[in-house]
Amino acid sequence: MVHVLLYYANIIDYGRILFLLWAMAVYQSNPLAFIFFYVVSAALDAVDGMAARHFHQTSNVGMVLDMSIDRMAYLVIQAINFILFPQYANVYLTLIILDGVSHIAMVSSSLISGKTTHKLKDEDTHWLLRLYYGTHLLFTLCLCSEGFAVISYITYYYQFEGILGVLHKALFVFFAAGTFVKQVINVFQIQHAAKQYQLFLDSPKKKA
């Protein structure tokens, strides 16, 4: 029997960490290399989930590992933007805090509830969270969140003119709008997690 740490999906996640470390090493000296390594690491996030489902290797370890790497990656690029754009430091700091707190709260509340995923579709879940996790809205807003982080980084190192300039501004506005909506979702995630904690604390099993 294969050890959970050697599940294919988890091995992919180890690769994500390596790409992220390479990105961190070159973010000042080689912006293009940083973007490449970061995007590859982010893209593998979709692959690990498919691998886990295909090989029937879903686990709590994999859920926590996947979420931890996601948060670590987002923290890295937004921390870099925090450094590059001190005038917008509060914006990037807020994004880091909301992203980290909401996902850690969701995953931990899922674990105490005995679930193997924090992606909620239950009837007792707020309709906005059901919409988020039950449709392509999840992928769209995650793409916007990552896109906003990457395009912020790109803006510091590169200037675009003409058609590329217009496209750059359009993408920036689109990703920024999607990122704002995702922060609203994050607030609801924190609220839902708090309710799950309260249910756990009030449960007869816990009291016993």
Automatic annotation (TrEMBL):
Pfam families: CDP-OH_P_transf. The keyword Endoplasmic reticulum does not apply. It catalyses: a CDP-1,2-diacyl-sn-glycerol + myo-inositol = a 1,2-diacyl-sn-glycero-3-phospho-(1D-myo-inositol) + CMP + H(+). Its main location: membrane. InterPro entries: CDP-OH_P_trans (IPR000462), CDP-OH_PTrfase_TM_dom (IPR043130), CDP_ALCOHOL_P_TRANSF_CS (IPR048254), CDP_diag_ino_3_P_euk (IPR014387). Its cofactor is Mg(2+); Mn(2+). One of its GO terms (biological process) is phosphatidylinositol biosynthetic process. It is a multi-pass membrane protein. Its EC number is 2.7.8.11. One of its GO terms (molecular function) is metal ion binding. It is found in: Membrane. One of its GO terms (cellular component) is membrane. It comes from the Eukaryota. The chain crosses the membrane at residues 95-114, 135-156, 162-181. Keywords: Lipid biosynthesis, Lipid metabolism, Magnesium, Membrane, Metal-binding, Phospholipid biosynthesis, Phospholipid metabolism, Transferase, Transmembrane, Transmembrane helix. Belongs to the CDP-alcohol phosphatidyltransferase class-I family. This is CDP-diacylglycerol--inositol 3-phosphatidyltransferase. It comes from Blepharisma stoltei.
